[in-house]
Amino acid sequence: MHRTGELYGQYKTLEQQKETATLGMWIFLVTEILFFGGLFLTYTINRHQFPTAFGVGGNMLSLPLGFANTVVLIASSFTMAMSVWSAQTSKKTLVPLFLIATLVLGTVFLGVKVVEYKQKFDHHIVPGRNFDVTYCAKNPASVCGLTEKDHQDEIKEVREGVEAEGGEIALNAHAQLYFSLYFGMTGLHALHMIVGAGLLLWLILESRKGRFDANYNTPVENIGLYWHFVDIVWIFLFPLLYLINRHLA
Amino acid sequence: MSNHSEHVVSPKLYAVILGALLLGTYLTVQAAKIDLGRWNIVLALTIATIKMSLVILFFMHGKYSSRRTQLVIISGFFWLAIMLGLTLTDYTARKPEPSRSANPHALTIHRA
Amino acid sequence: MSATPNSNGGEQKLPSENYLNATYGIRSWLLTTDHKRIALLYLASVTFFFFVGGIFATLIRIHLLTPAGYLVTPETYNKLFTMHGVAMIFFFLIPSIPAVLGNFLIPIMVGAKDLAFPKINLLSWYIYLIGGSFVLYSFATGGLDTGWTFYTPLSSIYSNSAVTPAVIGIFINGFSSILTGLNFLVTVHTMRAPGMTWFRLPLFVWAHYATSLITLLLAGLERMFHFGFFNPAYGGDPILFQHLFWFYSHPAVYIMILPAMGVVSEIIPTFVRKPIFGYSFIAASSIGIAVIGFIVWAHHMFLTGEATYAAIAFSFLSYLVAIPSAVKVFNWTSTLYKGSISWDTPMLYALGFIGLFTIGGLTGLFLACLGLDIHLHDTYFVIAHFHYIMVGGAVMGYVGGLHFWWPKITGRLYPEYLARAAAIILFVGFNLTFFPQFILGGLGMPRRYHNYPPEFQVLNVMSTAGASILAIGYLLPMIYLTWSMRYGKIAGPNPWPATGLEWKTASPPLTENFHETPIVDWEPYDFVHRPDLGLTGSKPKVPGKLSPAHGDD
Which domains occur in chain C, in start order? Predict the structure, then answer.
């Protein structure tokens, strides 16, 4: 690993070295756009075909938790940007503090996701053999922690939509599609966050040695780019997964 | 020596952007509770796109980056647009599937 | 170190210190970050996979000697063509020119000491090996029978073959491509020596720029491979798989051809002794092919029942992509006009490329036509079409490039007359193998079938006969190139001579490529104002036209 702020190998100037690294990160992020894009494409096509099933599935997600997570992640982007600012203005002691804040917020996010995933497991809406989107409806309200009002399937509009999309049996299959996408997309996103957390940890350790200042802050900037990208993915995931047909609730 | 290509954004501006993002999140949740028919998704995606733009321009320093970097960012979206747009020319132009409820026991072939 | 008398009567030796002998031992190779050594590591591995794919091809052609097919069972036959495709496409064709020639040459051509990210370069080789291991494991434990296209639901639900490890391996291999592409893109953008403005860059670099762009974006997409939303039982759509698959794989085929075009653009001016015709058009058309190549993918799906509106759009766009390719062919051919042509081996490959690529490309237009494709889809016409481009095009570009830069890479020359003979054998064998397949396809012989109606036997036998000649055409270079590494004549820095920056370094180059950062003050392919090239002959009769080179001292 090369020393801080030193030219190494094939570079002629520090500026060239920094530009190169940043360009490399942006190009990598473009590949990530296409990567997630494929999943968004799949989502679009399936929701276009089965809007009611997606609505039923979407209403089973916890809006408060989703909203909280969105706020947490946006805040973490802010703290990340602030850590870059601290490095750029050579406020070396602030750098690790903001990075730690970012890491904490990111961990909170992941913790909430664990809670959500467990909830789905309990409610039998994890795709697989035990998947049953009507599980909560068939059981007393207390089992899923729902009130009578939350029973989507009793709403007339939903009933009509379900009929149009193939009936009750098909509803289970299509809802499974929705939850496959839910777990696939948020799971992939969470995986990226875990990688990001690892990178932040490394960054925190290095920044505590005072490595980053106005002369050299490339890793902070570039890991920041990665972190912001992961935030942007969530900015789209939240409305697409959590905010379908909420007016019916 | 500071790179002249590096533009330092002030914390105040970051805070403003943060506020805008949080406001956008709140708005999108409230909007979802109103029935706007097919405009719900349009509104939600519009708000999300604005939020994304703010993150890219300010948090990711997109506004202050070189032309080359900006070209790279735009090309990413260009390709995403192609993937979504052209594939949807297939899916949206297909004839609708026969309805199951006409004969619930019929085997429908999922074809275009 | 052997010495060879050169044309001036003096002794030529290999440079005493070069990248090959700078350090010794297996660790210095396996842990190298020198782009030139990494290129050789790739050379060894892609050649290995070429053998693997070639063995499967051999078995296929032997099996198809008789209408009923006597060599293998139908299930095994499915595995043969699948594994041939997987090995060749993902582990030979896609990496070959970029990872071998590109890795070696790009830093030198732009005047840099190494690529932007040398350690990432080494990492990409190891990732390639890991991906390859998964695929070899899949081959060894039951093989793969889904076709290299992995269409669902056969691949996702019904196949009993080792699909999962293969898909994992290809997925991992995609990262290798991303990293290589990223490296090239960043290097070209940020590490050019002073004076090497964009339009002075050799066209080879332009081709890689376009290729890298595609490689990056697509290898990213490839990861979509195994997310399972293609099961109709859940309302999923197998056609969605095809959309996602071809969104990646069609541009992937442009990854395979663009670098080969870059090679041809380097070779032709060298052996015609004049600048390439229409430099900026060739550069622009590389980018054009890359961009348009992204929006044509569903022409692989005309017969899936996709919406007619979409089919029309994709058909139109597929015709469009032929235009930049045609521009290149016209420009290469125009370069020959009033040039001083010599028939050295690389030139034979380049000329062969132009002819065979043209046939392959034109037959692509047949397939892009909706009405014709109904009859030609999934027949041997398609197989002939893409082999003309991939083998007649990409592989010939690769082999031609290897010959062209061999003196630079190894410091030695291969035996010229034997090499020319091998090139001709390859060309004849290739056409005998694949031209009959156009006819077979037109007559209706389906692809991926283990048997065929008896009336097609003659053409199939011709094809197999051609394949055996083609095999000799490939084996010969493998033998004499290897031989030349030890016994070949010393080449000197610029044996052809050619005008690129890479020919100003020693053969083989120093580890750091240049003693000092070079400053470029000449236009590309400028043979007239380069007295250092030592081109003999009296005053040219035609301005810009110079005497032929010696290629066979």
Answer: 30-533 (1.20.210.10)
